[in-house]
Specification:
Elements: E1 6-9, E2 20-34, E3 41-44, H1 53-63, E4 71-74, E5 95-97, E6 103-105, H2 108-120, E7 123-128, H3 166-184, H4 186-189, E8 193-196, H5 209-226, E9 231-237, H6 243-258, E10 273-279, E11 283-285, E12 288-290, H7 293-308, E13 317-324, H8 346-364, E14 368-375, E15 377-378, E16 390-393, E17 396-397, H9 399-408, E18 413-419, H10 425-431, E19 438-445, E20 449-457, E21 467-474, E22 483-490, H11 497-503, H12 512-521, E23 525-526, E24 531-533, E25 539-546, E26 550-557
Length: 558
Amino acid sequence: MKTLLAVLLSVSPLIALGQEQVTIRVGASQTKGAFKPVWHYFGYDELNNTDTKNGRKLIHELAALSSTPSHIRAHFLLASGNGKPALKWGSTNVYTEDASGKPVYNWAIMDQVFDSWVHAGVTPYVEVGFMPEALSSHPQPYTPHWKPGDKFNHYALGWTYPPKSYKEWGDLIYHWVEHSIQRYGKAKVETWNWEVWNEPNIFYWHGTPQDYDKLYDYTAAAIKRALPAARVGGPASTSPRNAHAAAFLKQFLEHCASGKNYATGGSGAPLDFISFHAKGHPSLVDGHVEMGISAEMKDAADGFNIVRSFPKFHNLPVFISEADPEGCGACASRVYPANAYRNTSLYPTYEAVVLKTMLQLAASRHIHLKGVLTWAFEMENQPYFEGFRDLATNGIDKPVLNIFRMEGLMRGNLVKAESSGAVPTGSIVNEGVRSRPDVDVLATRSNHDVSILIWNYQDNDVSATAARIDLRISGLPQNAKRVLLRHYRIDKLHSNSYTVWKQMGSPQNPSPAQYKKLESAGQLQLLASPRWIGERSGSAEVKFALPLESVSLVKLSW
């Protein structure tokens, strides 16, 4: 069989002797099930950044990532306050009480947030929390004032406590759902997921596990009373690799399966999906960042194992409703140097490995993985590239946003794809990617294209030679008269606003011309011009260099 294409794409660095050669084979006709967009979920603490200029800009970009809607989750939707943006804080002030103790509902700030999401085409993933001041059983002190470098001993205040009245809490939730239906329509609200609280096994919840179960029961009952078809779940607990967190998740599932329902008096609780969190653990080693991808993958594996151990629930959708390289998005790398990966191409490359590994772990355990949520958004009125875990800085897209653009271009079914440079899934889970780089692939096919995602990743942020990629694709339609080749790239020189910003001298007040250049550099870029290829052979071969901490998306369309 003739080769449809044998193209050598010269990039920087050029392919040279001494580089590792990696052969990647893609069988475009060998499907392995649907490619589900589990990646297009995002979240953030700083709720009140939603309706800012840069917040609205980013929300529209998230909505445009894929042909299917993106989803957004945020903390502090019910917290009391003035609605002003702050790090690791937000408020809507929806609930207060008059002098006689009668509830007063004010949806103005909440509506601004949800309008920004819904009108942009984003689907809310509704986190039901936190406790309004007037409902808290321990209201004072209430509002935290946190900045990078501060400890968290004065952070989890009155908003983390159980309600003084579970009935009044349930009434608040009922009115919230009712208001949402009136504003956005029943059909749209039925597409939302309602997740009860956040990380109730740590300082976000100053109650016992049984107190949380009670909160869950009253919340679920109120939501279902207002909207019987609503999807309710939880518990959004922390890393299951931790024994305490694993025990909390298990007791919650046991409660939902057969425990006494605090709201109804019956047995069990409605559960439409299960959620937990998975976090990595980067550190500084010999002056460089060493990512801890193994920790995040162990969380996923252990969480899936727990879900699988409950026959009643193992077919339910599962959300990893925070999945990140570490646990504090607002902990700027200026203060926490182990977080220095956040501005660079190391972050999107890490996310490529996470996507494939999560999919493999879920498939091996027959888990219905529905979403893997990246806890990152944007920080308003903060210095450029301060090192927050965000998707954009002052309206400039960071390299990590482009991995989601790449994944948004992938559609259809997963197809067989193998790499001679892949690190086995078990090794990534148990050891991370330390002894050699992971040069691997994930590929999809739709009716008229094949999309091939290829990355070169290792945990240690050190220099290394590029890999020589020999990409061989079979199973293309032999009746295609012409095939269009497009090659997208994220590396230090492509789809990378951070590199361009540093080349400018790291300006904190870029000129209009500089800002426009940074905006352009933040977009997903082609490595070379697209080209059309003729002949009819059903196969293709593409060769190129892939530097460490880089991702390529090769698309063939006909």
